What we know:
Helix 6 (about 90-100) packs across helix 8 (about 125-130), helix 10 crosses helix 11 (about 190-200) and helix 11 packs antiparallel against helix 12 (about 205-220). A hairpin with a 4-residue loop joins strand 4 (about 135-140) and strand 5 (about 145). The protein is about 60% helix and about 5% strand. The chain contains 13 helices and five strands. The strands form two sheets. The chain has a three-stranded antiparallel β-sheet with strand order 3-5-4. A two-stranded antiparallel ribbon has the order 1-2.
Amino acid sequence: ESFLPPLEAPERKTLGDLAEASGGLPLALVLMGRRLRGRGFPGQPRRFRAALEELRDPSLRLDLEGSVLPERGEIPVSLRWALERSEGALSPTTRETLGSLSLLPPKPASFAETVALAVAGTGTDPLDELVDAGLLEPQGGDRYALHQTVRDFAALRGPAPGAAIRLAEAGETLARDLREDPSRDLEYPLLERAFEAARSEGSERLRPLLLGLHDLLELRGLYDAAQD
C-alpha cells in the first residue's frame, strides 16, 4: 500500500478482499497495485473507490497488463496471457478437465482426488498433466487445491457438459458420508458448491445436500445458519 493514497477503513477492507480474491498471487498483486497507482486520483476518493470496485471483476483482473523485459525487447504480460500459455500446452481433454474443476472451491479449500475425477468424468492422466503444468496443486495424500486466479480463468472457459450434475451427485455421496462421520468438516466448502450446482440444475438432490449442510453447520455451532 506504500504507493497508494491514504486509505480509509472501507477502502482497506476492499483492498484486503481483492488480495484474497487473487489468492495472494504476486503477479496479480503487482498488476492490481499498478492499476490503482495509475488511478490514484489525488483528492478524488470517489473515483479511487470506483477503481477498487472495478477490480472485483475476475475478467478485468485477468486482463491487467504489466511488462517484462526478456532478452529482446519489452512485451506486455497479463495473467490471462500467462495462463493461456500454460493452458495451450495441455491436451484437449485436460483443458476440458480444468474447466470442470472450476466448479470446485478454490484455495484455501481442497478436494479429494475421487471428487475431482467424478466431476471431470475422466481418468487420472488429466489431473497429472494439470499438476505438471502448475495449474493444480497437490496437497498431500489424495487431495488437490485450485488457486483462485486459476479457478477464475478456468471459470471463464466454463465446465464440460454434465459437470454440474456430476458435482451434485458427488455432493450427495459426500453428504451421506458426512452424516455418518460429521468430523470431516473440511469438506464443507465442497458441499456448498455441490448444493449450488444442484440448485442451478434444478436437481432433486437438494434435500440430501441440505441435510449434510445442516449437520455441518450444527457441528460448527452455527445454529442460526443451520435453521435457515
